[in-house]
Amino acid sequence: MKPHQHHRETEAVRGGTDLTRKNGPLSTPIYQTSTFEVTDSEQQVRATHTDMFYTRYGNPTHTVAENAIAQLEGVDAALLFASGMNAVTTAVFALLKSGDHIVAQRDIYGGVTKFFTQWLPKFGIETTFVDTNDYDQHARAIRPNTRLLHIESPTNPMLRVVDLKAIAAIAREHNLISLIDSTFATPINTRPAEFGIDLVMHSGTKYFGGHSDLICGIIAGRRDLVDKIHEARTTLGGAMDPHAAWLLLRGMKTIAVRVQRQNESALRLAQFLSRHPKVRSVNYPFLEGHPQRGLAMEQMSGGGGVLSFEVDGTGEDACGFSEALRLFSLAPSLGGVDSLVTVPVLTSHAMIQAEERRKMGVTEQLVRLSVGIENADDLIADVDHGLTVVGSNTRRPEPVRV
Length: 402
Prior knowledge:
Helices cover 37% and strands 14% of the residues. By secondary structure, it is of the alpha/beta class. β4 (146-152), α7 (164-173) and β5 (177-181) form a beta-alpha-beta unit. The radius of gyration is 21 Å and the shape is globular.
């Protein structure tokens, strides 16, 4: 973990830039180029390992964004990727080999579950899945060939919170690499390196970009590990486009104020839903009654902008609710300024076997809300109106002005 010179809000805006430099562009330029010209062969050789050789290797726009992310996370280095899944797959291929073993919690994004269960076995890498909050089970699952502990916190879509200190301690004891998907938390709410986690992964598509207009993956952490992953990224070719990296930088400047607003509105929505007669259960880390609420409040400065809940009805009712909303757009993804709704069994966890979904608690009645930055009262009114379809014969009530 590296020391922070400024608060999160300041690092989000000014991170990655030289604060002593004057008389230059305030906004980072877009180096929208595939390659860079040199004067002679000696310079060509020297440039190979810099960000001014070939954009698959790196790019000056990437460098500013990566330095800003590393500063915000409080780690040695960061890397950008073409997508969140590209970040995970590249990191695993860089750090593991045939015959190695992974211990992963059961509650992780469906795409990563598919990668671990359907793709990694083709390369001779096995994964054991364990209950998310059973840390003795994590330890018991470790084998002599285990190399990686993979976790996610808060989890998608059940919003379970993982004890980061406990996981980091297990990893240290067994000389393992700890990797967390911290997309839901963001570095505004949690900085996992402060708890001893080696590598932090984000789908930068979500809160870092913040406007649902780019696809991005992020890996940040220890320099030695990031260097290995960088070498693999160069070979596998998952570098981010420079213009998208510039959009990411622009989005990062407002991440702190966006996340603060989303924290506040999501908590209000969770509290409203917890009192609603047509809601069976609500999952949100800072909501009273959440099983890891105390831990969440120790590790997080806010509960995040995502919550999930079960309608007191059927899967058809969950779909009807999601279709009845007007301010919550029916779309996958999360973390942007626009509020979104999705039914996880049809989107993020559709590729997972039904039995595995049941073990996670992902039911047909479960709805996930990504809270944007609209007025919280308007969002609550929209959700309240949408719930009128639950238990009724019609799936779509008349539109309401909110």
